[in-house]
Each structure stands twice: as C-alpha cells, then as structure tokens.
Amino acid sequence: MTEPQNPTEHPRAIRSFVLRQGHMTPAQQRAIDTLWPQYGLDFQNEPIDLAQTFARPNPKVLEIGFGMGTATAEIARRLPDTDFLAADVHGPGVGNLLKLVAEQNLENIRVMRHDAVEIVENMLADGSLDGIHIFFPDPWHKKRHHKRRLIQAPFVAKLLPKLKSGGYIHLATDWEEYAVQMLEVLRGFAGLENTAADYAPTPAYRPETKFEARGKRLGHGVWDIVFRKR
Ligand SMILES: C[S@@+](CC[C@H](N)C(=O)[O-])C[C@H]1O[C@@H](n2cnc3c(N)ncnc32)[C@H](O)[C@@H]1O
Predict the structure, then answer these.
(1) Of the residues 16, 133, 148, which should be mutated to test ligand 1's pocket, given the most ligand atoms within 8 Å of the CB?
(2) For a designed S-S bond to 227, which of 59, 133, 192, 220 qualifies (C-beta 3.0 to 4.6 A apart)?
(3) Using CA positions, which residue lies closest to atom 13 of ligand 1?
(4) pLDDT above 70 for 165
(5) What's the pLDDT score for residue 11?
(6) Number of structural domains the chain divides into
(7) If pLDDT is split at 50, 70 and 90, which confidence band does 13 have?
(8) pLDDT of residue 67
(9) Mean pLDDT over residues 3-13, rounded?
(10) Residue 198: inside a domain
(11) pLDDT band for position 6 (50/70/90)?
(12) Can you tell me the distance from the alpha carbon of 151 to that of 91, in angstroms, rounded to the nearest whole number?
C-alpha cells in the first residue's frame, strides 16, 4: 500500500499490529511457496462464499491473530467438523501454520496473510460465521498505545453482523486490565450475552497457545471470555 501524500487529508488507520520483519526459516518460506495455492486464501474486496471455499456447509470460525498457529492447528484437529479461516499478518507464523496444516492433513483450515480488520470489513458476508476466536491479541500495555487494541467497541460492532444468531465470540488474554476492557466492551452490546457470570472456564477445544505459555512463565494469569449472539 502506498502512503497517502498528505496524512491529514487521508489519515492513516490506527492498526492493531506493527509489521516486523521477523526471521523466516527456510522451512517456513518453503511452506509458503509450495502450500499457499492449496491452503492460502488471498484477500479480496468482496464477500466470499465460505461454503465454497471449504467445499462443505459445516460451521465456520474466523480466528484473528493466530501467531505461530500451533493452537489453531490443534483446535482444527480437535474439531474436524468445523472449518477455520485463520488470519495473521506475521510471515513466519503464516509459513509455520501452512507447514502444520500439510503435516497433519488438516483440510479444515484456510490461511490468510492480511489485516483481519480489512477482512472483516470487506470479505465476509453478514451471518457467515458460527464463531470468532481472538486469542491473546497484542495487549498494547502502554496507555498511549491502547488505541491500537483490537477489542474496542467500533471493531466489535463490525464483527457482530458477521456472526450468525447463536454464534459465539471467544477472547482470551493474559493481561488483566485488557480482560476488564474486553468484558466491558462486549457487555456494551445488547445483541450479545455472556455465557458465564464474567470470565468463562477455558473451553475444552482451546489448548495453551504460545503467547499464553510465555505469559504464564512471566507469572501472568489467563482470562477467557465467551459471549453468544442472541
Ligand atoms: C500476541 S500475538 C498472539 C498469537 C497467538 N494467538 C498466541 O496466543 O500465541 C498477537 C497476534 O495477532 C496478530 N495481529 C494483530 N493484529 C492483527 C490484525 N489486525 N490482523 C491479523 N492479525 C493481527 C499479530 O501479528 C500477532 O501474531
């Protein structure tokens, strides 16, 4: 994307990520080169038919920010009847997840390397999702960076129409103050109901993620939040 000439005229969107180069291993690069045609999905500016993408009508879950994808692959293995559209912007992670998908013959994952905010805004039809997973989104600890946090009311307002009635949104974080914000944001939507009094027990399908393990080593707690669309 080219930078606008006059940033005040076309203000740059505040993004929830900073693209770092990151080291791509030869195996990850090879996975991108060879497996993208089969398991990768390019961004497009109009809604896609997910049933066609996965060649079956089964439940569809969007995962935003899969990181290295180890939890994504494990969840897809545990839930073979559900299809997962997994999005991240981080190249090495994309290569890693493609590699896991091929190694484990996971036909129920498609990988996207694109800003999930734009995917939600442009590429998903209303009522097309049965679930949304956002596990350990970047906590953006510093107050002046809070504006970069993914879980804020304007983004949730864009996410909700994409869910079917009865569909769920499952968030997890290791940063307590962000957990409080997540709960507050989701509670602000009358169209959503909490499946628990506040924080939910970790659902059986969610294994420990890489970022979660790191948080635990640092002594952080873990909070899962699961709301359902009425
Ligand atoms: C802290 S990591 C957590 C990764 C993984 N879920 C885990 O628990 O190990 C957050 C991830 O979200 C990704 N991310 C942040 N904003 C994103 C966006 N708008 N679209 C897609 N991915 C995003 C980052 O690239 C990063 O890989």
Answers:
(1) 16
(2) 192
(3) 65
(4) yes
(5) 53
(6) 1
(7) confident
(8) 98
(9) 49
(10) yes
(11) very low
(12) 23
Among 81, 138, 198, 224, the active-site one is 138
Query: CA torsion 49→58→150→136, rounded to 10°?
Result: -150
Position 20 confidence tier, pLDDT thresholds 50, 70, 90: confident
Q: Which residues line ligand 1 (CB under 6 A)?
A: 16-17, 64-67, 87-90, 93, 115-117, 135-138, 150, 209-212
State the DSSP code for 23.
P
138 is catalytic: yes
Q: How far is CA 53 from CA 42, 50, 56, in A?
A: 12, 5, 8
Per the structure, the complete domain to which residue 160 belongs is given by 26-229
Among 182, 187, 112, 127, residue whose Cα is nearest residue 150: 182
Atom of ligand 1 nearest to the CA of 117: 19
Question: Is 61 part of a structural domain of the chain?
Answer: yes
Q: What is the pTM of this model?
A: 0.95
pLDDT reading at 3 higher than 70: no
> Which amino acid, 35?
L
Closest CA to 168 of 158, 159, 180: 159
Using the mean position of ligand 1's atoms as its centre, give its distance from the Cα of residue 172 in Å: 12
Do the annotations mark residue 115 as ligand-binding?
yes
CA distance 69 to 92: 10
- Is 212 annotated for ligand binding? yes
CATH number at residue 86: 3.40.50.150
